[in-house]
Amino acid sequence: MAQIRIENVRKEFGAFTAVQSSTFTIEDGEFFMLLGPSGCGKTTTLRMMAGLELPTSGQIYIDGEEVGQKPASQRDIAFVFQMFALYPHMNVRGNISYPLKSQRMKASEVKKKVDEVAEILGITDILDRPVGGLSGGDRQRVALGRAIVRDPKAFFMDEPLGALDAEFREHMSEELRALHDRMGATTVYVTHDQLEAMQMGDKIVVMNHGVVEQFGVPQDIYDWPATKFVAQFIGSPPMNFLDFNGMIGIGGTEVRVNDVVMPVPRSIEGANGPITFGVRPEHVKLEDSAPYRGRVIATEYLGTTQIVTFDTPNGLLKARVASHEVVNTGQSIGLRFDPRTITLFDAEKGGALRSEANEGVLNHG
Amino acid sequence: MSFSVTEPNKGTKWFAGVLVVGYALITIAPLLWIIATGFKSPADSISYPPKVVFDPTLEGYVNLFTDRTRATADMLEAEGEPQTWYERIVREQGTVIIGPSRYGERFLNSIIIGFGSTALCMVLGTAAAYAFSRFRVPLKDDLLFFILSTRMMPPIAVAIPIFLMFRNLGLNDTHLGMILLYTAVNLSLSVWLLKGFIDEIPVEYEEAALIDGYTRFQAFYKVVLPQAATGIASTAIFCLIFAWNEYAFAVLLTSGTAQTAPPLHPDDHRRGR
């Protein structure tokens, strides 16, 4: 049970920089998600926390103690690998008891602990089986058993559901979250699946190209992305971007997109030049009276909602509307955007322009 | 249309049976011939055309394990009647046993040198292969190629320098010298083979052991070694076969104390025994 602090951590592999100066804090007991596309440095960050890689520079604090250069065996943490990495030459009991044996725990005590953990995970009946013939779900449970058996300070999981089929993944993710809530241990979880991150995480760090793009609770990250990358990576379909040339002053509450005035949250950062107007699909309303118009080029029916794709003067735009609304391809429709949900981005640098709405969220950086 | 497996008819079965037995005979024949030769008299074993039917005798084995001398009639008289079956066998050739041969100690030398060099080869080879497989070694590819390149000429081509080196180092005719030599020759093979086997073992197993509180070395011998066991065993067999059968260096570098079994046989033939 511990707080984990990452300060200016950087990792280079030869000439390649995998992680560039990351800083964030994981509070005690949090279920924390490291989210990003493959190759973004999220796994490297996790491996540095675990001690499987040593950072090139920067500090890592686990429970207040600086452990950046310590080997994994001295950090008192548990790691669940994507392919589970169960020791193939031992049976289930051998695997789960292995971390206890390194602590020279008495055999009778080891047995008691292993039985306890097996009870929690519902694998009592397979304890004496070799790990070779186990199903994916059981392997996953054994890997978890090996992790929780010695009450480590923190759990690190590297895409632990990645090796399971889709149907079972849902079930295991619930089981994992329930296990976390029951144990209350700090958990750091790496995933590239934004849905999984939103579903399970208390907090999310979004990484790209070795840089922490944003850090916060799922809802803040979804509503107020700090960069265009986050806005695109999270949400399905992702946030719409309308590129235009314009300006907004400090304290401004509207922008002119192709001579159409669009209200936005009160700005506290001015900009002049190429700006990106960001709006989530579900915040687009179809209203014939609206001055900003788009031509329908496609519709996708999704049951309760439909995704309508518009061609607008500033690029393609997708709207999520109720499926009972009748929309025909080729039709020109007025689009109204909920002004409280708009994020403006610096089109070139990609960062969100600060406004009264997102100011508090962006501070984490 | 459905397919069914039908019982083959009798003729087909017979034909298949004859093929299998024929193939087995061809394969086994040389082994049978070797065994049979063991029970032939020296004259029968080199006769031409080769003898398929012969009088079996244990003469070869008695000769292998004893030193004998040709005896005159007087000496035979003095010896008296042969007491044992092996004395009788040598007496038929007009010789008497003067003591055990050196074969026993040569065989022991073969065991010491063969197993010694194999063990050393495995220890060094596994360590090197593990390092090459898991760590960032500067100039890794060049080093691996260099190790392989030591196999690119027959070792016996450098026999003279090795002979001189051994003489100056006092390694001539010593167990240590032969163990070092065979280890040096075999090491490249074992490093390459073992690296292949260790590469196949996912690195996550060791990382899991590191996380579970074990040191790098414990992770190596508790997790990597058990999984590499079959690979290590097969590599060890290759090394042992080479060291066991090696002839040229053994003839050149050993004469007495450290001589292995292979050089002894031609030596005996040369002396007509």
UniProtKB/TrEMBL annotation, chain A:
Per UniProt, which keywords does this protein have?
ATP-binding, Cell membrane, Membrane, Nucleotide-binding, Translocase, Transport
An example of a GO molecular function for this protein is: ATP hydrolysis activity
Quote the InterPro entries the UniProt record gives.
AAA+_ATPase (IPR003593), ABC_transporter-like_ATP-bd (IPR003439), ABC_transporter-like_CS (IPR017871), ABC_transpr_MalK/UgpC-like (IPR047641), Mo/tungstate-bd_C_term_dom (IPR008995), NA-bd_OB-fold (IPR012340), P-loop_NTPase (IPR027417), Transp-assoc_OB_typ2 (IPR013611)
Q: Name one Pfam family in it.
A: TOBE_2
ABC transporter domain mapped to chain residues: 4-234
Q: Does the keyword Membrane apply?
A: yes
Q: Which PROSITE patterns match?
A: ABC_TRANSPORTER_1, ABC_TRANSPORTER_2
Its domain of life reads Bacteria
Matching entries from SUPFAM superfamilies are given as:
MOP-like, P-loop containing nucleoside triphosphate hydrolases
**One GO cellular component from the entry?**
ATP-binding cassette (ABC) transporter complex, substrate-binding subunit-containing
UniProt similarity note = Belongs to the ABC transporter superfamily.
Q: What is this protein called?
A: ABC transporter ATP-binding protein
Protein source organism: Thalassospira alkalitolerans
